[in-house]
Design goal:
9 helices; seven-stranded parallel sheet; 275 residues; Dehydrogenase/reductase SDR family member 7C; Rossmann fold; alpha/beta
């Protein structure tokens, strides 16, 4: 089985989710390597890929990928291995700030990394899967592809776009027996901490701004990706009850959701002014 674990980098120094995605990529690589997959690793720097290569002690072929050369890398992989059985898209970049404070240029960079990166690679690999009438494509996305969180507008927009694309792709690939899956965690954290007690409205608001309490560990994400591939799950939401409730409320009671978010912002601004 040939599997590509990918990560796209734009070479920007803005705040991003490098640590989170590096951790997920490493854990996914180790989990699938242990399961006997032959890996093709793609990432930001050759040094990090070599370090992971050494850790895996495998026949993995590290490839450094930039969004401008995705098609060439995909062609090289197909020429070398003949096919990709499983493609895992794990590219992500994010920035925090008010909408008016984020430049349009940065908005575009976020969209390039989180949306155009995964779909460009997917489109490059897809014809080979279609010709073979088999394959699996996995998108590791975010709960912010389901709900918009304040001060994360560009990130949430890109994740919503990715979900929309892969939902459509899933339906279109049905006739070719190609599985398309999305795995959406809340936030990635390197250690566990139980949710703090409080009323349900406060808990939903705390979910927005104290993300560690509701995060998932990279190992959990990797294991869930493996389970998703094994069982060909279509969509997975990795979230505790409170984040799940937020998605439910946004879907069925949008006005209530908007009111909670608005009140939370007012409370946050008031706290900042008092401090």
């Amino acid at each position: 089985m040939i599997m590509a674990v990918t990560e796209i980098c734009l070479g920007t120094k803005e705040e991003s989710s490098k640590v989170e995605n590096d951790a997920i990529r490493k854990k996914c690589s180790r989990v699938f390597h242990a399961g006997g997959a032959r890996l093709v690793l793609c990432g930001r720097t050759w040094e990090k890929l070599e370090a992971l290569y050494d850790a895996l002690i495998s026949v993995t072929d590290p490839s450094v990928v930039d969004i401008s050369c995705i098609r060439d890398v995909a062609k090289e992989i197909l020429n070398c291995y003949g096919c990709v059985d499983i493609l895992i898209n794990n590219a992500s970049m994010k920035v925090k700030g008010a909408v008016q404070s984020i430049s349009l240029e940065l908005d575009k960079k976020i969209m390039d990394a989180n949306y155009f990166g995964p779909i460009t690679l997917t489109k490059a690999i897809l014809p080979n899967m279609i010709s073979r009438r088999t394959g699996q494509i996995v998108l590791i996305n975010s709960i912010q592809g389901k709900i918009g969180i304040p001060f994360r507008a560009a990130y949430a927009a890109s994740k919503h776009a990715a979900v929309g694309f892969f939902d459509c792709l899933r339906a279109e690939m049905e006739e070719f027996d190609i599985s398309v899956s999305t795995v959406s965690p809340t936030f990635i954290c390197s250690y566990h901490r139980p949710p703090a007690p409080g009323n349900w409205e406060a808990s939903i608001w705390k979910f927005f701004f104290r993300k560690v309490s509701y995060g998932v560990h990279p190992v959990e994400v990797a294991e869930e990706v493996l389970a998703t591939v094994s069982r060909k799950k279509q969509e997975v939401l990795m979230a505790n009850p409170i984040p799940r409730a937020a998605v439910y409320i946004r879907t069925f009671f949008p006005e209530l959701f908007f009111a909670i978010v608005a009140s939370g912002i007012r409370e946050r601004l008031k706290t900042e002014e008092e401090s």
